[in-house]
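Summary for the funding panel

The consortium committed to producing paired sequence-structure records for every protein in the target list. Below we show the first two records in order, beginning with the earlier of the two.
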Amino acid sequence: MSATTETPAIATTESVIAEARRRTGLTDFGDPAMLEGLSRLLKAYAEEAGFTPRGYQGAIESVTATLANRMKVEDYLKQHPELLERPVEKPLFLFGLPRTGTTLAINLLAADPARRAFLRWEAFDSVPPPRPEELHAGPRYQAAQDKIEFSMKYVPQISAIHHEEGDSPTECQFSMSPSFLAQVYEAMAHIPSYRNWFLYEADYLPAFRYQKRLFQLLQANTGGRWTLKNPWHPLYLDALTTVYPDAQLVMTHRDPTEVVASACSLIETVRKLTAEKVDPIQIGKDQTALFDLMIERVNKFHAKHGPEAVYHVQYADVMKDPIGTVRGIYKRFGEPFTPAAEAAMQAYMANNQKGKHGKHEYRLETYGFTRQGILDRYADYIARYNIPVKG
């Protein structure tokens, strides 16, 4: 879409579906459950997000492209229904409050040649399923890499906060976003009505069912144990384990005074790219309420399934001894930690030193908090999971 300052036409569910159909020549988007999320998202974008004209255009383009990709996935599965008979066995899901070391941990895990990660490029251009030589090369990878390199020229601060390459393991919420049920939408814009629905009313099962279908497609030519990362999985562990009853669950933890400030800074930086104005204090209120809910739900999951239901890892350990910490994950689930895996992880660490893409600066006070206030708010969480805090 062209960059303009004119007020763009308001997108509707019907207009977005029509455009996705025009682009693909396809008609079927699969489970109609996704229509509720799409409708609520578009309404919130139009009425609440406060986008600039260019920001609104970009948001609608992203939604349209996401739907078009979903339609291609469903069409491919119609043509290859045998793929839906292939299991997704013992997928490992890595999660935790954002900014708690999940990115480093997933990159180390994904370095293991016996594992299969969900790569950034294939999240947005999934069909056809890649052959082994296409995972880290080829036109779809290159298109994703070109976008990243373009953005780094104009908004390098994003990479200092959270950097991915075109073939990096990406958050598996991008396999939920085609169901229009993903935290990424709330992160990118202040859309209270969508947020409330997403957190308290939505049925998460359709998103995980679609996700599994997508993984069954993507694994057609490339094997390996699915190893996935999404900080927000504490919100919907019941739905996740309904679809994947043999899932291996790992949660990371970090000093909440660092988590809150860092996460709020990321949200503020992202929203400033597309919004007319951004309120840091509102971001602080929303993010801490979200973190409260994540902690509450993982606690309830433990109460229901027992203390061994989730394996817990400290950010401090990930930073101090990353490979040793990952070795502990393998031990917890009885997985072989092979020499090939260790060598690949060591190579990753050698090529990706902390601070490679710049330093992320942030302050709690920007978002209306004090250090002591956050420590008090999360005192029970810190004690329950034995989280080291500074000082």
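The next record, for a separate protein in the list, is shown here:
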Amino acid sequence: MRRRGIRIVVNAPVVLGFVGICVAVTILNFVTGGRSGQLLFMTYHSSLLSPLTWLRAFTHVFGHSGWAHLIGNMSYLLLLGPMLEEKYGSRTLITAIAITAFATSLVNYILFPSVALCGASGVVFAFILMSSFTGFKEGEIPLTFILVTVFFIGQQIVEGLTLDDDISNMAHIVGGIVGGVLGYLLNVKTGRRFSS
């Protein structure tokens, strides 16, 4: 009788790749004294004629202000991402990340011209709201979606109005909206029905 060994599998390539890039960018930012982050991985009000402005509109989600910021976001991504990648597929998850990155960058550019934005928090909130649709049935709105929206987005609105910190509550709110809309549209589009 031959024993079967345990092997490690790459179960969510997009999520693992995203996390790997974020770790590499954080290390690079540390090594360059923050210069690489400001040049490539932080979105802020700059000329729309500059190609870097458009690049940063997407790459800012890879940059983080430090290790605590990185670890917090990566923990959520590693928890929620594999389930979403399994359900929707790798291409859809890449699209969701790109839409969230651009949407948070655009809102930040328009509404907060003096604020620089970096980090995957918007993506995290998109994943949180998308995950609340995993048991979706057509013609229904999951109670979990309503509760997640109230707790997470409501908290961000309250904190955005009452706290003066370096956390972009706007990115959380925009990411949550993107995730909620995508979660709904993806499930209506697939027409999947789940039975117990």
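Regarding this second record: Confidence is low (pLDDT under 50) at residues 192-196. The first helix runs from residue 13 to 31.
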